[in-house]
Specification:
This protein is an alpha/beta fold. It has 7 helices and 7 strands, in the order αβββαβαβαββααα. It has a 7-stranded mixed sheet.
Length: 249
């Protein structure tokens, strides 16, 4: 649920407990999470790369921010981070302190993160290590790369995969001039209360039975892969080896 529905979520969870208490293998609950359109809430308990003291990322009014949740072991995260560095190199003169790009790594070890950044020469980005911070849960970051763009007033105006923004430099320039960015994942794209959400181009009504069959077929194919000796050997060399099924609906 939306961040401002926290009280409603608590009431719902309290009511559910009366129904599910004592029932084996059943858990019901909802959570109010921050997203596009909500005010940014300060991320706490992260580490910078210099020491072990806990730091807080408190937004400064008048600055445009992008927080990039990423990891050194994540192949799709590397090109966006390299692009972050290029943007800061290209636009340093006219952006100054108006735009800040913050890398927030979910790596398990800070030493690997520091080494990776040094080898790639990515020091232009402000880097932090998530450490014991609960920011991923607070902002429902379930995979990386995942970015949040925050406007000059501290409002989250975009949240999602960086590939959904075709021109980040243009986005930052627009927000610097107090403009509005639109599109999937943006605050301005949220449907109005009680309004009808338009069907995106190329989408059609989903057949639940067909979806169920697709998931079953994909799951069976993945199970077969886990039995393939060649795939098993390759997987041993991967930092992480997993398959993700995505239902875009």
């Amino acid at each position: 649920m939306k961040a401002d529905q926290g009280e409603m979520a608590s009431k719902f969870n309290d009511a559910c407990k009366k129904v599910t208490d004592g029932v084996a293998n059943v858990s019901v609950g909802v959570q109010a999470l921050l997203g596009a359109g909500d005010q940014y809430q300060t991320i706490t308990d992260v580490n910078d790369l210099e020491g072990d003291d806990k730091k807080s990322l408190e937004h400064v009014k008048g600055q445009v921010w992008m927080i990039d949740f990423w990891a050194t072991w994540c192949p799709p995260c590397q090109a966006p981070m390299a692009h972050n560095v290029k943007m800061l190199d290209d636009r340093a003169a006219d952006w100054g302190t108006d735009v800040r790009i913050i890398g927030l790594s979910i790596d398990g070890e800070k030493e690997k993160l520091t080494k990776h950044i040094t080898e790639k020469k990515w020091e232009k980005v402000e880097h932090y290590w998530r450490s014991e911070s609960t920011c991923s849960k607070t902002y429902s970051v379930n995979g990386v790369p995942h970015v949040m763009i925050i406007d000059k007033t501290g409002k989250i105006v975009f949240k999602g995969h960086p590939a959904n923004r075709s021109n980040l430099e243009e986005d930052f320039d627009t927000l610097r001039k107090d403009g509005t960015i639109t599109g999937e994942g943006c605050a301005a794209a949220e449907k109005a209360e009680g309004g009808e959400e338009p069907v995106p181009e190329g989408y059609s009504e989903m057949d639940p039975k067909e979806l169920e069959e697709d998931i079953a077929a994909a799951t069976a194919a993945i199970e077969e892969l886990t039995k393939d000796p060649e795939v098993v050997e390759i997987a041993k060399t991967c930092p992480r080896a997993f398959c993700v099924l995505v239902c875009d609906q």
